[in-house]
Design goal:
Blueprint (H helix, E strand, L loop, with lengths): L12 H8 L1 H21 L4 H20 L9
Length: 75
């Protein structure tokens, strides 16, 4: 199976750039997930810090879900 994406350049320059950089966006999101997870799991946080990180972690996944995304690479 093959898939082809076509863009009318220069009109679709922004869309083309986002498509080309998709794997970089995924890696940045993955890094953010791991940063939050590591802080929660392996760092000593006071109650306030832990609550803030947990809220951020929850919001992170809400944003992904609201945009129809997950951390599964082939979702």
């Amino acid at each position: 199976m093959k898939a082809v994406l076509k863009f009318d350049l220069p009109e679709d320059k922004e869309e083309f750039g986002m498509a080309v950089k998709g794997s970089r966006y995924y890696c940045a999101i993955w890094d953010m997930y791991n940063c939050l997870r590591t802080k929660l799991k392996h760092e000593e946080l006071d109650d306030r810090e832990a609550m803030i990180i947990q809220q951020m972690y929850k919001k992170f996944f809400e944003i992904l879900e609201d945009n129809g995304l997950s951390l599964e690479p082939c979702d």
